């Protein structure tokens, strides 16, 4: 009986450590970044690990014409969406590294979804 209690206490300690590491990992997501481009690099969007747009660079030639506002808007959306796609694997790797050795490798366990 005491063996089970000891196992339970050990597991609780591990959960606290996992929570602590996940909190630290969450707090440092803002230091991660990924960039997406569209229009052959004429629009570049950079996002952080908290999925916030941190930089938007638009080639000056795109702004000069003024005629193609819709195209510019589409390019901005495309670049931002690409940056969001690019940050996903970086976030996942960051969170896996934060809990390395604490959790068993469970297929289908997505730590990113635990982050909200």
UniProtKB/TrEMBL annotation:
InterPro entries on file? YbaB-like_sf (IPR036894), YbaB/EbfC (IPR004401)
Q: Does the keyword Cytoplasm apply?
A: yes
What are the alphabetically sorted keywords of the record?
Answer: Cytoplasm, DNA-binding
Q: Where in the cell is it found?
A: Cytoplasm, Nucleoid
Q: Does the keyword Electron transport apply?
A: no
Pfam families on file: YbaB_DNA_bd (PF02575)
PANTHER family referenced in this protein's UniProt entry, alphabetically: NUCLEOID-ASSOCIATED PROTEIN YBAB
Q: Which family does this protein fall into?
A: Belongs to the YbaB/EbfC family.
Subunit structure of this chain's protein: Homodimer.
**What role does this protein play?**
Binds to DNA and alters its conformation. May be involved in regulation of gene expression, nucleoid organization and DNA protection.
The entry's protein name is Nucleoid-associated protein J2I46_26190
Origin species, per record, is Fibrella forsythiae
